[in-house]
Amino acid sequence: MAVGIFDSGLGGLTVLEAVRKRLPDVPFVYFADSAHAPYGVRDADDIYGLTTKAVERLFDAGCDLVILACNTASAAALRRMQESWVPRDKRVLGVFVPLIEALTERQWGDNSPPREVAVKHVALFATPATVASRAFQRELAFRAIGVDVEAQACGGVVDAIEEGDMILAEALVRSHVDALRRKMPHPEAAILGCTHYPLLQDVFQDALGADVSVYSQANLVADSLADYLERHPGMLGPGTQETFLTTGDPARVSSRATQFLRRQITFTAA
Fold first, then answer.
1. Taking a C-beta distance cutoff of 8 angstroms, is the pair 190, 125 a contact?
2. Hey, what domains does the chain have and what are their CATH numbers?
3. 80 near 133, Cβ under 8 Å?
4. Are the C-beta atoms of 190 and 207 separated by less than 8 Å?
5. What is the reported pLDDT for 47?
6. In this predicted structure, which of 26-30, 127-131, 172-176 has the lowest mean pLDDT?
7. Contact call for residues 69 and 15 (beta carbons, < 8 A)
8. Count of H helices and E strands in the chain?
9. Cα angle value 191/193/195 (rounded, 5°)
10. What DSSP character marks residue 1?
11. Alpha helix ranges (H) inside the chain
């Protein structure tokens, strides 16, 4: 009954913690493609190839349902995977859907024409690849009109987090927020469009100001997954053990993950 969670590195652990809390009886298999992180500077074909290889490994680990807890993979590879690669008896879901639902206050299956929503000025903080894909803007435009989205590519933040240099990561966040504000002085909402960024959510909030609503994905994804599994209980795979897999050095990745989550995490080689 395992569910797979994939990320290019350790950012998806923010999603893992939220879904574990929401679904304590479901074992999760986490795959960190640490050897190839970060994905945010790679091209779409490269991201697609790496993502499909990782998801195949999660299928082999007994997961019939895999969550791409990586915005870059969701933006650059998911649609292509769903159209031509995912087997009929498997499902691969991304992290954009719950975020769009929350921002537009409408369900994903609602195919009525786009309509005005309360928030008009949205700041999007994401990796260069996610920003270049314009996937967030495309999905939002299907459902909402009159929303101005200003995207800021946050180069270096994921690298700093993966290296455990949170002082550098904080400095970079503040620099990127300053750059965004020069383009959009008064955002009403901010999207943390990378699952690494919730580790610095307080820094984003402080730099943006208390009047800006900051949307983080972990809890939104957890609620969405719980709803999905209630409607599709057959998608719980045959796996039974919580497992952590990585393409990187297991000892190093385990140490970083333990530092982030403040509980012992032990990765094994994928």
1. yes
2. 3-94+218-269 (3.40.50.1860), 97-215 (3.40.50.1860)
3. no
4. no
5. 96
6. 127-131
7. yes
8. 12, 12
9. 120
10. -
11. 13-22, 44-60, 71-76, 78-84, 96-104, 128-133, 135-141, 157-162, 166-183, 201-208, 218-231, 250-261
CA-to-CA separations, 153 to 126, 176, 238, 258, in angstroms, rounded: 5, 8, 39, 28
> How distant is the alpha carbon of residue 246 from its chain centre?
17
* pTM higher than the cut 0.85: yes
Per-position b or e across 228-237, b if 16+ CB within 10 A of its CB? bbeeeeebbb
Tell me the C-alpha distance between 6 and 11, whole Å: 10
Active site residues: 70, 194
Written as one letter, the residue type at 243 is T
3-state secondary structure of 122: strand
Residue 216: the pLDDT is 82
Q: Residue 138: CB partners within 8 Å, gap ≥ 6?
A: none
Contact 34, 247 (CB under 8 A): yes
pLDDT digits (tens, 9 = 90+) for 75-124: 899 999 999 999 999 999 998 888 888 888 777 567 778 888 889 999 99
